[in-house]
Structures are given as C-alpha cells and as structure tokens.
C-alpha cells in the first residue's frame, strides 16, 4: 500500500529518501545529509516515545520547507498525520504504510472481500491523501497462469511442427517446453509463501500446489513425447547421413573401377600396335 500526499500544483524538483530506522536522510548523490539515531525510548524516559517516526522525519526535514521536495519513506515512518504535517510545511511525501496504523483513516483500508481479480489494484482518497493497493499474490498467480497459457499454446503447435518432421524446429519446441516447465516450481514456491503469509490454511495451499503439480506432470508427459520425436528424427537424420556416405563411397568405388577398365583397355590397344 502506498501513501502519497500531494501539495496542490507544486512542481516537484527533487526526491529525498528516508528509509532507515537510523534516521538517515540520503541525497540523490548517495551521501548522508543528516542522521538521527532512533530509539523507542528517550534516554531520560522509561516509556516508549509516542510518534517517534514522525518526530524524526520532522526533525530531519527542518529547513527544507516549500522547496519542492518529495520525501520517500518506508512504513516505519509513514502515517497520515505525518503526511498532513509535511504537506503543511510544503513537503510532499510518498511511501509505504501499514494499514493498521493508529491514525490510518478507515476510508483508506481496503476491503478483504470480495477478492479482487487477478492483477487488479485499488485506490482510495481522503482529502489530499491518496492510497493505492496492489497484490503481490495476485501478480504471482497471474505470472504462473501466463506460463500455463504459453505451455498450452506451445502444446497446440506440436502436431503442426511434428508433421513437418523438421529436426531443428522440433528441438526448439522441446527447449521451449522444458524452459517453461522448469520455471514453474520456483514460481509455485513463491506463491506458496505468499499464500501462507496471507493467512491461508496450509491444506488449501497444499491442495492448490497439487493441482499445479498435476498440470506440470501432464506437460512433462507431453514433453517426453516430444523428446522421443527428437530422438527418432536424429536417428533418421543420422541414418540418412550414413546412407549418403555409403552412396558416395559406392560411387567412388564405381568410378575407380571404370577408370581401371579404361586403363586396361588403353594398355591392350598399345600392345596391339
């Protein structure tokens, strides 16, 4: 989820990154402009400091008001209150934010149901704050679905390619199938982790994984048939080469025989004279 505060029609000229719990303010050159060590407790206090992240950001940005800066923060710092305070100082901000933030407006919390379509995103706005959401899980599911659609497309091309009995084309077909199949397990593991992280039941994740493995097994069987075709075509090509070599050798022997006959006839004619 991204939280962005936009200050009217101000033209943005610079971007500053604030993404470390040590409170480092990095310039575009990569050098540290300012730094403040963050601690949940002040040295003279025993209780945690309230609003630590916002206080650090406001301290580090002092003196940079109304200079067309965009401040980039991670979810340790970002909050709606901080966004409003920075906006009041003439500083726009952009960063990730935790939905369970104490002051996070309910209008910006995206509903869990109904589940959004694959690859979709959503947004909400409240005053001058804009929140945009996307789902890594849905993107990962979209990618693995694309792999299977490509495998299906390649599978449908098999009869046409095999009918031509073209060795190189069939070898390319085999490599394409193998490449796509080999990429599925890694993608599947990534989705498993995302599903578990999301809170899905392990049995549901396992059931989904078995379905993926079943599809992979089907395409592996198809690929094995293509491998057999490649092997047969290679053997046929090798046999053809062998036949061509034998034919060339036979023609060579015939030529030698004819040359020897000509030589013998020439000798006999010389002896007659």
Automatic annotation (TrEMBL):
Coiled-coil residue windows: 216-267
Protein name: PiggyBac transposable element-derived protein domain-containing protein
Pfam families: DDE_Tnp_1_7 (PF13843)
Domain annotation PiggyBac transposable element-derived protein: ranges: 28-177
Keywords: Coiled coil
Species name: Stylophora pistillata (Smooth cauliflower coral)
């Amino acid at each position: 989820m991204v939280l962005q505060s936009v200050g009217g029609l101000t033209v943005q000229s610079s971007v500053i990154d604030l993404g470390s719990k040590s409170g480092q303010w990095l310039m575009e050159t990569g050098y540290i402009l300012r730094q403040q060590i963050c601690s949940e407790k002040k040295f003279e206090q025993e209780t945690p400091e309230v609003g630590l992240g916002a206080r650090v950001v406001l301290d580090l940005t002092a003196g940079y008001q109304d200079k067309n800066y965009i401040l980039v923060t991670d979810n340790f710092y970002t909050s709606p209150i901080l966004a409003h305070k920075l906006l009041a100082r003439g500083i726009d901000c952009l960063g990730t934010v935790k939905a369970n933030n104490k002051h996070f407006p309910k209008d910006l919390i995206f509903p869990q149901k109904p589940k959004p379509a694959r690859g979709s995103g959503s947004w909400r706005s409240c005053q001058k704050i804009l929140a945009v959401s996307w789902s890594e899980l849905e993107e990962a599911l979209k990618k693995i679905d694309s792999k299977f659609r490509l495998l299906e497309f390649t599978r449908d091309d098999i009869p046409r390619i095999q009918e031509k009995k073209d060795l190189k084309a069939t070898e390319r077909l085999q490599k394409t199938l193998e490449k796509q199949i080999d990429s599925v397990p890694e993608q599947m593991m990534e989705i498993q982790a995302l599903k578990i992280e999301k809170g899905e039941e392990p049995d549901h994740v396992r059931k989904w994984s078995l379905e993926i493995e079943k599809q992979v097994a089907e395409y592996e069987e198809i690929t094995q048939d293509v491998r057999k075709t490649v092997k047969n075509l290679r053997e046929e090509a090798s046999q053809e080469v062998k036949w061509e070599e034998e034919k060339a050798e036979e023609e060579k022997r015939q030529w030698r025989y004819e040359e020897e006959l000509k030589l013998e006839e020439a000798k006999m004619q010389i002896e007659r004279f």
